[in-house]
Amino acid sequence: MSEPRFYCPALAVGVVALDETETRHALVTLRLRPGDPLVVFDGQGRVGNARLLDHERPSTSQPSPAHPSRKRHARHAGKLRGGTLARASVETVLYLPPPPRRLTLIVAAAKGPRLDWMVEKCTELGVDRLVLTAFERSAVRLEAGAAERLRRITIAACKQSRRAWLPELRVAPTLAAALEAEAARGPDDSEEIVTAIGPAPGTVARSAALLVADPDASAAFLANWLHGHGPLPRQLTVIVGPEGGLTDGERVQLRALGGQTVRLAEPILRTETAAVSVAANWAARAH
Question: Per-residue confidence at 46, pLDDT binned at 50, 70, 90?
Fold first, then answer.
């Protein structure tokens, strides 16, 4: 059985402390003991082999007898109530480079648990950047504060799927704002967004492509686009609109950026299903 994994942004060889959420996972959910092996990762490609250390137990003025089956749970709960954080001794740290090809999804937010499910599954499938935004026909509009809760979902999904890199998660108020932010990324990421239908023989594949998910019957299927494309672009951005569809104005805006329409399946998909479909197709082809 694989060692359990824990998120530790301040990862280095030596003694590190887990945050409260990861401490609860280690001590209460998994009931790990000092000396148990574990894996820690920082979400930026560094992964370490470690062992859980012993830690202080809060003192109690009048310890009361308890059934043996409840003593261990009481000790763990007391550690958390006292603010004690689990510590681990990191023995080695390896760096795993980011994938050579990256997928960005600019997607309409779904409702409630459907949004959580979408973020979780897109993380498991290797989406590198997830931008949640509002389209003209969106029924759900997220506050910027929602990003922190969703970030915890990405961390849990990375732990489950053994990802070394956390996806970047952002909330943008409008599609225009999301596209503007993509264009304003740093020099390493600001590839020109172009349409890449497939290089002619003897030519080099373009660096980036912009696709727009749409049920238009005349559009090529995404699976065919990916598998018939030859060398894939280093950066693929896919737009997934709300269940009400894109407006004519949004289509014009995306075509002006070189966006190419693709469809995902014959049936009409919910937003979160469409996003996961894009991620699954990309995962099957890009690696």
Answer: very high
Q: Is the pLDDT of residue 71 over 70?
A: no
Q: Which of 201, 199, 208 is nearest to 258 (CA)?
A: 208
Find all residues with CB under 8 Å of 104, minimum gap 6, and list them: 127, 128, 129, 130, 131, 182, 235, 236, 237, 238
pTM value is 0.83
Which of 80, 95, 110 corresponds to the end of one domain?
95
Domain residues for the domain of 72 are 5-95
Measured CA to CA in angstroms, residue 206 lies from 184, 197, 225, 230 at distances of: 19, 9, 14, 11
Provide mean pLDDT across the span 96-121.
95
Average pLDDT, the chain: 84
Tell me the residue type at 199: P
